[in-house]
Automatic annotation (TrEMBL):
<keyword id="KW-0058">Aromatic hydrocarbons catabolism</keyword>
<protein>
    <recommendedName>
        <fullName>Muconolactone Delta-isomerase</fullName>
        <ecNumber>5.3.3.4</ecNumber>
    </recommendedName>
</protein>
<feature type="domain" description="Muconolactone isomerase">
    <location>
        <begin position="1"/>
        <end position="89"/>
    </location>
</feature>
<dbReference type="GO" id="GO:0016159">
    <property type="term" value="F:muconolactone delta-isomerase activity"/>
</dbReference>
<dbReference type="Pfam" id="PF02426">
    <property type="entry name" value="MIase"/>
</dbReference>
<keyword id="KW-0413">Isomerase</keyword>
<dbReference type="InterPro" id="IPR026029">
    <property type="entry name" value="MLI_dom"/>
</dbReference>
<dbReference type="InterPro" id="IPR011008">
    <property type="entry name" value="Dimeric_a/b-barrel"/>
</dbReference>
<comment type="pathway">
    <text>Aromatic compound metabolism; beta-ketoadipate pathway; 5-oxo-4,5-dihydro-2-furylacetate from catechol: step 3/3.</text>
</comment>
<comment type="subunit">
    <text>Homodecamer.</text>
</comment>
<dbReference type="InterPro" id="IPR003464">
    <property type="entry name" value="Muconolactone_d_Isoase"/>
</dbReference>
<comment type="similarity">
    <text>Belongs to the muconolactone Delta-isomerase family.</text>
</comment>
<dbReference type="GO" id="GO:0042952">
    <property type="term" value="P:beta-ketoadipate pathway"/>
</dbReference>
Amino acid sequence: MLFHVRMDVQLPPAMPAAQADELKKNERELAQGLQRSGKWRHLWRIAGQYANYSVFDVESVDELHTLLTSLPLFPYMKIEVSPMCRHPSSIRDTDT
Ligand SMILES: O=C(O)C[C@H]1C=CC(=O)O1
């Protein structure tokens, strides 16, 4: 199942820089592992914002929920999820 996800990150301004750096490092490691596994299919920065557009390829809504809530930055993100299905005019298969 494919999901388009927008994540907006809002770290508290008072968060110590070392804590923010540790969160971002842990987030990067998890995100890169999930990309290597194929579950986090796309990760794009939204230009000019501390936000991203992502595409996840998971087995279920429950798996997506578990994955998103396990992200180190989850407590500091506003997340919008859109389920996607095949467009009848698309010339691509879902594996690309
Ligand atoms: O920077 C972000 O957009 C938030 C988050 C998503 C992946 C990652 O490494 O950090």
